[in-house]
Design a protein that fits this description.
The complex is a heterodimer. Chain A is mainly alpha-helical. Chain A is built from twelve helices and no strands. Chain A has a single domain, classed as MetI-like (MetI-like fold, Orthogonal Bundle). Classes of the chains: A mainly alpha, B mainly alpha.
Amino acid sequence: MQTPVEPAIDVKVDSFELVEGTSLWKDAWRRLLKNKLAVASAIVLSIVLVAVIIGPLISPYTYDQTNPDAVYMPPSAAHWFGTDQLGRDILVRTLVGGRISLLVGAVASIVSLVIGVSYGAISGYIGGKTDEVMMRIVDILYSLPDIFLIIVLLAFFSKDLIILFAMLGAISWLTMARIVRGQVLSLKNREFVEAARSIGVSTPQIIFRHLVPNALGPVIVYTTLTIPSVMLTEAFLSFLGLGVQPPLSSWGTLVQEGVGAISVYPWHLIFPGTMMAGTLFCLNFLGDGLRDALDPQSRAD
Amino acid sequence: MLQFILRRLLLAIPVLFAVLTVSFFLVRLAPGSPFAEERAYPAAVIAKLNEKYGLNKPLPEQYLNYMNRVILHADLGPSTRYPDRNVSDVIVQGLPNSMILGATAYLIALVLGMGAGIIAALRQNSGVDYGAMAAAVLGVSIPNFVLGPLLVIGLSLSLYWLPPARWGDFSHLILPAFTLSALYTAYIARLTRSGLVEVLRSDYIRTARAKGLRESVVLFRHALRGSILPVVSYSGPALAFLLGGTIVVEKLFLIPGLGNFFIEAANARDCFIVVGVTLVVAVMLLVFNLIVDIIYALIDPRIAYK
């Protein structure tokens, strides 16, 4: 940027574009900060994140430490969330479970970002027969009853965390690919792409340097909404006994254990259940807030 | 239109073929056998059982036999989990229960969701709107396996209003149907609201009002028709999964539906039931998506299918 040989006019155009670029994101940021629910959700989520990372480290108990003298203890100063059927501390199990649940959400959204964005962008930009074939593949994968196939995989192969993570990632990229393809289709004939093509920028460069950054708004929004839905799927699989295996816990397994003891020891369900529902609630609100901020038209008010 | 339907039906054939093939090989390549139970059978018995179900042959032959049976004879095979029934019997037994439950839940979701969405859109940015939309996010956030037990504690174990589980008369339907509908109610409410808010600002609604139509006519004849499309497209996959057996709710409330049979079969490695039920769900998904596209064209005359 500060090379003196460059003509002055280029610098001007460059800096002009820079200002416009930042103001879009600044606008969005300002709109997001005005949305009190979204800000509150972000704060709660940060607290949850810190708690699940640090909590198990400073807790006097470990998630698999049993205590036959303290079975089904109600909440007390020693065990804030009470204990379960083996005398394990429910607070620390909820926090460790939160690690798994949030990790699942993170892994699936990274997979959906990497595969979904590249697939959709390439399909949309190349177009023609390639696009047709790539989108038919997505259509076919869409028609597979994915939950049933995941259950088959987990029930028949091994109830391995890696398989669980990979499967949840594998189903989460389809919608992302469609969204990005639609964005790229509407962008690829714009002047800036033509300009890039005319000065000989390579196809991968055009796709990933010019098109994808311009489609980032919907991508961010969809990612924030993917995380809660994947977390819900993980919880559902763990609830069926197919996800995370004991003694490790996830929010799904804790709720499942809680349901068994529901009428006599309600805290066993209520604490992990509230924690999970609260986190999902905040993620959904943050996703809605981001959508309103990045795409003001969609809010329609 | 007819051409469009035929094209879609044609496209469904490779999809169903893929579903059958993928699920068959997943199930058969997996370690473990349907006959490896707690009480170990003698090897001779297992060999005999494998022979009876044709599971002793090489895998490609098993696959060809199976496809041949499904496609040419419309026979989904025997069940190893329920030796006295074959897969078709299990589906005939489970599917109606799942469909009753799913259809009830869908109706609840449609009525409550669209009602809440319309009210929220008409009173936009009021307390009612924010309340309804917060409730909708809550509905998306509470997993049904948390909501179900909470309803059971409240309405059956404390108040004794409704039975907590099992399947029989109408009273058994209420709790599971409401549990199942919560998520869908929330989605439909959000879709209805955002669709309606956008349509209410459009020019043709202004025209309708300008020519002096009553507000109820404007809303129900003109606005709703334009805003209902997202709800329709969401309903396709939603109905397929609701009617095709909802594993968690059926398990929670001990309902003998398809989802319950499926999870039992998957745990018992009953390959024929697993593949059969997966096929049924895939067929329903295709059918409902096709119906949705047809309804689309009926509601919105601007959509034309080539």
